[in-house]
Specification:
97 residues; mainly alpha; two-stranded antiparallel ribbon; 45% helix
């Protein structure tokens, strides 16, 4: 994602454009939370304790066709790999876990 963001910042003719940067495949928020908990080995989600709002986001699905076209950009890292790298970075830097 960082490479995609940097490409946007370096392009001069994109003023006012909205460009989605992401993996381009849907991921349920619940499953992402479970993946994170599995990686860190801590925590217990309390799914269902609070009633979902009518506009609650269940899946995140960035449509990245515009990023591919305007930036010649495609994602290089899968979600699980990215989560592991991010969590390991914070483990080393902040010693959270």
């Amino acid at each position: 994602m960082i490479n995609g963001i940097l490409k946007v910042l370096r392009k001069k003719n994109l003023s006012g454009e909205i460009i989605n940067i992401g993996y381009g495949k849907p991921h349920e928020v619940r499953k992402v939370i479970l993946k994170i908990l599995n990686i860190i080995g801590l925590g217990k989600p309390h799914f269902g304790n609070i009633k979902l709002r009518k506009d609650e986001i269940i899946k995140l699905y960035p449509k990245i066709a515009k990023a591919r076209k305007l930036l010649n950009w495609t994602p290089k890292t899968r979600l699980l790999t990215g989560l592991k790298k991010t969590i390991n970075f914070y483990k080393k830097k902040i010693m959270l876990f």
